[in-house]
Design goal:
By secondary structure, the chain is an all-alpha fold. The protein has helices at residues 2-10, 20-42, 45-62, 68-82, 91-104. Helix 2 runs antiparallel to helix 3 and helix 2 (20-42) runs parallel beside helix 4. It starts with a helix and ends with a helix. This is Sec71.
Length: 105
């Protein structure tokens, strides 16, 4: 499930001992970027495209302030978006996704 994946991926179970700067990532940037990746993966074309645009605008605008270990999480989020291509089902949807959303990226 998505909340379970989110908790595992974010490592929220160890958040109490995290430095303040990492709590900004765990409570702010990570949930926002993760949610945008869900929008890009699941919504209709116009919403996916806008979500992808917002995601990359955030990265371009604020990425220079991200800590190196935050980038590992961010790359996992980005790679997750493109993992849809590994799924054998829904070939028609995958073709549409590749010719629209993927090209936009």
């Amino acid at each position: 499930t998505s909340p379970q994946l989110f908790a595992e991926h974010a490592g929220l179970e160890g958040e109490q001992g995290a430095p303040e700067v990492d709590r900004v990532w765990l409570r702010g940037w990570f949930p926002l970027l993760f949610s945008l990746s869900c929008v890009v993966s699941r919504c209709k074309l116009d919403v996916r495209t806008r979500g992808l645009t917002v995601l990359f605008e955030i990265i371009k605008t604020h990425g220079d302030s991200f800590r190196p270990h935050w980038w590992r999480d961010l790359f996992n989020i980005l790679f997750r978006i493109f993992d849809i291509m590994k799924l054998p089902e829904h070939q028609l949807e995958k073709n549409e996704w590749m010719t629209t959303t993927c090209n936009h990226a």
